[in-house]
Design a protein that fits this description.
six-stranded antiparallel sheet; mainly beta; Phosphorylase Kinase, domain 1; Elongation Factor Tu (Ef-tu), domain 3; globular
Length: about 220
């Protein structure tokens, strides 16, 4: 599979993306973090927390199975084409391609709800679901909005008008355009390398071993 490099527009800026080689991953480790400051009283032990909106973030590590030379060349070319942390690529959870819920309808972003779905909101207003449908999405289901990957935190049902307010993680990165499709299957997020340095190893079996850390593209 040839490496394809092309631009997308994200938040009004042009981002160069690189296509992921087609070989299956051995493991995809996903990590999540939230930006929460804590202060504890030295007298009572009581703790206060301060949440920093928008500080929640995806990270992870991609590990490939041992690769023969042809496949290794594709992955090494991919890592080189990323130009360190500069360029982006799309990747999803390949073991959870479909939701547990029943996403009836053609759901889309509805910016007349949730105060216009501003950046850093932890909810997303949507419409165009089949009206009065229970469990269109269930807790833990992925959704994709534009190039952003989110998980739904609570079971969601549509009302009699086909609207549903979704509780999501992470928070919205940008205000999504009204009527943007809510993707519920084969979802992907936008990622970059977590370091400018990339390494691989080759041993006496002539197989290449390769893994690399990733961060959500911000």
């Amino acid at each position: 599979m040839a490496i394809i490099i092309g631009p997308i527009t994200l938040g009004g800026l042009s981002v160069t993306t690189v296509s992921l080689p087609s070989n299956k991953l051995r493991t995809l480790e996903l990590r999540i973090s939230d930006a929460i400051a804590t202060v504890s009283s030295p007298y009572t032990g009581q703790t206060q927390t301060q949440s920093w909106p928008g500080g929640d973030m995806w990270a992870g590590t991609v590990t490939l199975p041992p690769l023969a030379q042809d496949d290794a060349d594709q992955w090494i070319a991919f890592l080189m084409a990323l130009r360190g942390m500069q360029n982006a690529f799309q990747l999803g959870d390949y073991l959870k391609r479909t939701p547990r819920g029943n996403p009836l309808g053609s759901p889309q972003v509805d910016n007349t709800q949730n105060g216009g779905n501003p950046a850093m909101s932890q909810q997303l207003g949507t419409n165009n679901w089949t009206p009065s449908s229970a469990g269109v999405l269930l807790a833990g289901d992925y959704i994709q909005i534009g190039y952003r990957l989110h998980r739904v935190l609570t079971d969601a049902s549509s009302d009699s008008s086909g609207n549903a307010l979704l509780n999501i993680w992470p928070s919205l990165r940008e205000q999504p355009s009204n009527m943007t499709a809510v993707v519920t299957s084969n979802t992907q997020g936008l990622w970059r390398l977590a370091s400018n340095q990339r390494t691989w190893s080759v041993d006496y079996t002539k197989l290449t071993r390769l893994s690399f850390p990733i961060l959500e593209y911000r």
